[in-house]
Amino acid sequence: MDYVPHTFEDKKKMLEKIGVESFEKLLESIPESLRLKRELSLPPPKSELELKTHLKELSEENKSTEKLISFLGGGAYDHFIPSVVEHIISRAEFYTAYTPYQAEVSQGTLQPIYEYQSLICELTEMEVSNASMYDCASATAEAALLAHSQTKREEVIIFDSVNPFYIDVLKTYTQRLDLKINLRKNKGGIVDLDDLKKTVSEKTACVVVQNPNFFGLLENVEEVEPSVHSSGALLIMVCDPISLGILKPPGEYKADIAVGEGQSLGNRQSFGGPFLGFFTAKKGLIRRMPGRIIGATQDQEGKRGFVMTLQTREQHIRRERATSNICTNQALCALASCVYLSLLGKSGLRKVAELCLQKSHYTALRIEELDGFKMKFNSPFFKEFVVQTPFPPEKIIKELLKRKILAGIDLKKSKLGLENCLLISVTEKRTKEQIDYFVEELKKLI
Predict the structure, then answer these.
(1) Predicted confidence (pLDDT) per residue in 82-111, tens digit
(2) Measured between alpha carbons, how far is 128 from 283 in angstroms, rounded to an integer?
(3) Beta bridge partners of 236
(4) Would you call 161 helix, strand, or coil by DSSP?
């Protein structure tokens, strides 16, 4: 936004144009009891130069993964973004576009969304994808609502190995509905299969499984799936898209719905958003999917074109019949993901996933060499793992920040009973030198 100050003369001309004598006239409809009776405590005005300098100083107080060595994860990851991604999404026709209601003038917006959907379907090996959602948390909640609508059942089974933030959003979405959230405890960091078999019933609408889960561990989805489908429930999988470069996709696990966080695909962490949630499903569920779906068609002249095929949102249909009453497709973030996947291709994505796997396991082995540090769980992991520490992780995080290292996430805050546990994530960006430096700084704290 440009710096555009208004002089008293400017304000006078604007009021004359509007047809009022003073600014106070514009406030007459606001009751006196609601008006502030004192002056705001504001600093003196600044010139454009002074203001930019001040804002720059404020921004430099932020701790950014751009300037620090980051081992943070838990749903937002520091992956490499090729320069061409931001170059393309910065084109004016993309970053200024709104919902493409008029297909005849929105082909340049509709086509990349269609390509995004196609790429997400190929990545997950699912049959249909929508045009993306707010984030993975809201996509997970919407998936549960779809399962409830499809099965007419009132129970959602979800294990606490799913990201706790996603569980919180799920609870928020469903608190006014006849839908019970049955939160189950993990066993050794993963789904307790015996507990699942005992719990799932003819009342269960769906079972939500995250793979890799919040702790970075790989779930035994092959053993989960039969228990879910034998009861008539739907299987919802929450996925890390980067992991699908080397892991079996949800389609192969016979998942009914697969969702995930697309931030890893060419989007910056941006202090927690905006992100995008991808949402895919079996074709039979397409009319119950939230958001919008772009389809390919032909015009009267036989030329290929793109349209909104399905858009049963609250803006287009009666509220009670809408598939979702709170969703948007985060088009610019989805475009970044589309460009990212197109650039990397299958081999590139596989290479990124392999580097994450190799570097995270190297880091875990190095940390286990330190006195008092040990792995919390024994199951295989992808790019994140939990380390039990000899002293509070809060101290580690605070001290290593002074060395320009973001050490990870203190799991005490997750309320899962994981005291003195640190969640560490390692992406392809971390070099051997950075990892070794991290381990050496941990060693100094012992």
Answers:
(1) 999 999 999 888 877 666 777 777 888 889
(2) 6
(3) 208, 257
(4) coil
Sheet holding 374-375, edge to edge: 374-375, 384-388, 421-425, 409-410
Please count the CA atoms within 13 angstroms of the CA of 405 that sit on its side-chain side.
24
Q: Are strands 304-310 and 293-298 parallel, antiparallel or unpaired?
A: antiparallel
User: What are the angstrom distances between the C-alpha of 440 and each of 319, 369, 405?
Assistant: 57, 11, 12
Please tell me the distance from the alpha carbon of residue 410 to that of residue 398, in angstroms, as a whole number: 11
Instruction: Report the C-alpha gap between 4 and 16 in whole angstroms.
Output: 20
Neighbours of 75 (CB within 10 A): 23
| Ramachandran angles phi, psi of 129, nearest 5° | -135, 145
Residue 212 lies in a domain: yes
Prediction pTM value: 0.88
Regarding whether 194 and 162 lie in a shared domain, the answer is yes
Domain shared by 286 and 377, yes or no: no
Q: What's the total number of domains in the chain?
A: 2
What CATH number has the domain bearing residue 238? Answer: 3.40.640.10
User: In terms of domains, do 256 and 357 share one?
Assistant: no
Are residues 150 and 277 both part of a single domain?
yes
Residue 272 and residue 231 share a domain: yes
Range of the domain at 93: 83-340
Q: In this predicted model, what pLDDT tens digit does every residue of 302-330 receive, in sequence order?
A: 999 998 887 765 555 556 666 666 667 78
C-alpha angle 286-117-136 in degrees, rounded to nearest 5 = 80
